Structures are given as C-alpha cells and as structure tokens.
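Why do we care about 3D structure at all? Because function follows from shape, and shape follows, mostly, from sequence. That is the central idea of this module. The next example makes it concrete: a single protein chain, its amino acid sequence, and then its structure expressed as tokens.
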Amino acid sequence: MRTTMGRLVLISGCSGGGKSTLLEALAALGHEVVPEPGRRVIAAFHAGQGGALPWDDLGAFARHALALARSDRAAALARPGLVFFDRGTIDAAAALAQAEGVPLRDSLGPERHYHRRVFLTPPWQEIYVRDAERRHDLAAAEEEYERLRTILPALGYEAVILPRTDVGARVRFVLDTLADG
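And the structure:
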C-alpha cells in the first residue's frame, strides 16, 4: 500500500522536454493526471480571469502558479491510485525563488509534497519548440532544468532523469521505477 505522498508523482524538468506528451500517455492508460499550473495561469490571464504572464512579471506568475499547484495537490489527495503532475508546487516555488528570492522552504514548508522520486525531463533540442505560452529559448529551458536538478535533492527528493526515447519507453520507465519503490 502506497502512502499518500507516494501516490502523488511529479514530472518536472526542462520546458519542451516532453512532460505533457508523457502525461497524455499515462492518462491514456487510465492514470489520473494534473495539467501544468503555469499554462493554466497563462490561459486564465488571456481569458480575462486574472493571473499574470511570466514574461511580464515572473514573481506574480509564480505566486499564481503556486496557489494553483497547492489546490491541485489538495484535490489529488482525495483521488485513489497514482496521480501524475505536470509540474507542481516545487516548480512554482523554484520560479518564485528565482524571481524574488523567496526561500523554497518558505513557499513549500517542511513536508514532502510528492513521491520521493521526481522525474525530470532533460533538455532535448530535437523536440524543443516555442509556442504562445513558451516564449523562452532552449538555453533558458536548460537553466531551468539545472535549477530543478539541484533543488530536488536539497529538498529530499531523488531526481530521476527520464531517458530521451519514445513516449512508450518513457511510460514503461516511469511505471517500472515507481514499482521498484
């Protein structure tokens, strides 16, 4: 039997590294998935529902993403089985720390929010694309990845780097890694 935190699995890492594609494949297998808070904050802003844009005010954007990620996590606690997150509280807290210097522990608290193993998508130039919600270049995405790769162990998580392979192999890798403990 998994503990509550052991059921909540974070997929993080480099922007444009294939997180959303991986989560779509996990959802197709019947797993619960939670979409990326940052993209939802941007969509809400464009729909006139508040929020902020990261390229205009990274701090305000990170605060909105953190609030949404906290709400997502609270809602996921009531769901049975594994729940996979496309980014989450750690990503938002890291952005807030970068933008405003807010210490991670001040944003996150002392408790672990997710499974002890967090999956990171590494930079992958062949699949990286910019879009209306991802305006930064690959170099900025690589910096983001390195920040997260450093932050996770400092918060007590094991950073598990996802292989650069097809989505089916990535799904098997994630599920096999979780089955191993």
